[in-house]
Amino acid sequence: MSLNFGRPQLSIPGPSIIPERVLNAMHRPSPNIYEGPLIDMVDTLYPDLQSVARTKHTVAIYIANGHGAWEAALKNTLKSGDRVLVLGTGRFPINWGAMAHSHGIDTQVIDFGMQDDVCQNKVADALKNDSNGEIKAVLAVQTDTASSVKNDILAIRKTIDETGHDALFMVDCIASLACDEYHMDAWGADVTVAACQKGLMTPAGIAFVYFNEKAAQARKRVQPGEYWDWVLRTQPYIFYRQFDGTAPTHHLFGLREALDMLVHEEGIKNAWKRHTTIANAIWAAIDCWGSKGSLKHNIIDKAKRSNAVSTLATGAGNATQLRNWCQKNAGLTLGIPLGFEGDDFDSHFRIGHMGHLNPPMVMGTLGTIETALKALDIPHGEGALSAATQVLANHS
Ligand SMILES: *Cc1c(COP(=O)(O)O)cnc(C)c1O
After folding, report:
1. Which domains does the chain have, with CATH numbers?
2. What is the spatial distance between Cα 347 and Cα 337, in angstroms, rounded to a whole number?
3. 63 CA → ligand 1 middle, Å
4. What is the pTM of this model?
């Protein structure tokens, strides 16, 4: 018999839970798109989007998902025949590289596997070997949503600088923006790509490309085509051109509300801290479960884990069962594994912990996972919920 009756809980790494306030802000008739409140409101989004990424540089807004932001970043800076260096931690940078390849861009991939972050020596070697400067951009993710590894973006910047290489540094913050601490300007990213449906708590459909002066110069040697051209979208803000057609009206009102919550009420630094505490609570629970049996976090070193998502390894064959049990009996949706195949698929799952989350939601997810471990007789250590509450209690 199922206990699945109350409010369902989505604990996948994107889309994340949409706050009622964001949903309510979207519940309105279609606005005038030529003058009036929508146009005035959109101008207010830009400074807040800059604040979230800690940048004074320009941000273009696209009606797109994360893949659209990837494409926009590539099209505005690169052309067929250029080469990119892909820092392949987990799956997402590799997929971004595959997209570049589909545009005729030569891709040089360093595959760091499913359990590691970027190894700086390998990046340095690849850049030093490129004596003709054929590599035009370095593509990296801050958080890889498949492995849940977090890269040290500032360290990669320093590596690029130490080699004296001139490539653009392009960083995917789609999973991590507003969850993991990020400073676009201080950490020296030339381009940052992001989307609205993860840390920014808004229904999927808006994407962001931030670019600095160096990236703006790169734009001059390419032809991105009208739709992706970030110049049209940012200089000057002519409303209809800014979206190359009808604006994503309701999404923009939703995003306004989400930014009010994150930037003006909670504060972005507090949002990072909340995510850190919640992530640590989840990891404390995982450590306890793993004290008996074979459950463990996919990334051993806590300093290399993302605040936004955790990938768990369960040992032989029970992660799929566990996810199915939670879905069917408890209304909890856990994340399927990405980048793990065959038997590895059945022995991994992901917990999304990005965005609109508080202790009842986190403890609900952890408590439900523990219930499934018991119901399915999966060996695990005790004390996980108590350990998680202690971490939450220490948040100050
Ligand atoms: C979710 C995600 C993407 C892809 O975003 P879509 O909106 O699904 O296209 C890309 N990169 C990272 C790191 C992500 O987490």
Report:
1. 20-264 (3.40.640.10), 268-393 (3.90.1150.10)
2. 9
3. 14
4. 0.98
